[in-house]
Amino acid sequence: MDPTALFLSRIQFGFTISFHIIFPAFTIGLAAWLTVLEAMHLRTGRPVYQSLFEFWLKIFGVAFGLGVVSGIVMAFQFGTNWSVLSKMSGPIQGPLLSFETFWAFTLEAGFFGVLIFGRKRVPPWFYLFSTAMVALGTTLSAFWIMTNNSWMQVPVGYVVQNSDFVPNDWTKIIFNSVVWSRFPHMVLAAYLTGAFCVAATGAWYLLRGEYRAEARVMPRMGLGLAAVLIPIQLVFGHFVGDYVHDYQPAKFAAIEGRWHDEQPAGEVLFALPDPASETNRYEIKIPILGSIIGSMSLTSKEVGLTDFPPQDRPPVLIPFATFRIMVGCGLIMLAIAWLGSYLSVRHRLERSRFVLWSIFLSFPLPFIAILTGWYTAEVGRQPWVVYGLLRTADAVTPFLTAPAARSSCSAQFTCSSVHLFLRHLLHLPAPARWPLTIFG
Known about the structure:
By secondary structure, the protein is mainly alpha-helical.
């Protein structure tokens, strides 16, 4: 195994998934928003809902296409860069990814054709049904992907045969308790992404004094949904933390920045972890809170990173920092959602330009939160690609060379750069130009 090839393969996979995940994270929430708009239009007959539907359908189509293309690139990497992982976990990951294709992608892609071409060709009730099926398909896609990733995080329901992981109980794999905390956490994050992007778009048009009827609806509905969902998201985030605490104690210790056992444990709010000295610099800590968060106890003993051999510890700085960025984004979004919703109910939102600018500038926050949460989960899992069973260094294609990996990385980065450059050359109609330049 060439260390340079391993490093480049990890960089390439990290780049690919970072680029890919922003599109399904956006389209899952947006598909649900489109369903609500179509239902509201059928119920009330107000043209503003159909106008918003047609506007956001175009954006959904672009994001959906980009998500498909970037997802295909990810699939190729399993065969080219991670053939050992593909071989050993293929009996489990292969069916799960196939379910995602045949159950989810076929559903959303098929009915998406109705949304594009069928407005005047099918009855209104069937058009609404098609919109709901697209939303269901995007959600099912997230479910199968999270089931697959959750198995890599906490492997269950398998036996080892000829060095391969073979399923012996699909119910344990699919109904793993880890799945049912991580999947809602991801779906809620996607809904919040859609909600804030919708609210930010409405805020932008209110600031410019354009499309006022549509602009008033978007912040009201987007922020109202976010105000309700963020507290629920915090609860599911705690459930995810519980599984990390119980099944991946080294990751939990890295996230907490805890080097040594503590009883009771404090909660590190800010620090600069120093792996060389196994201490934290510039540490700000709240006593006892770490035990409360970790075990819901005032006296529990919480393990530190020094309980694990150095080769089994994750890189500390990345999960420690990304977790705090994720939580910080969530708290800022909560404040904006509650304040904006309050002003909207009191019919004062349009007069507060400061709040409108805050809403507009908040659109990157859910994307940042999703990316940093994903980095926390994946980097914190290291050095394992299948936790406790297969190390990342052993999962890479054994004959992959550094020049081959370098060529693949260069080609992918070049194509991504050309893609972004071409997007900026597009001269889109005024109502669509602003959101598309943000999401692409």
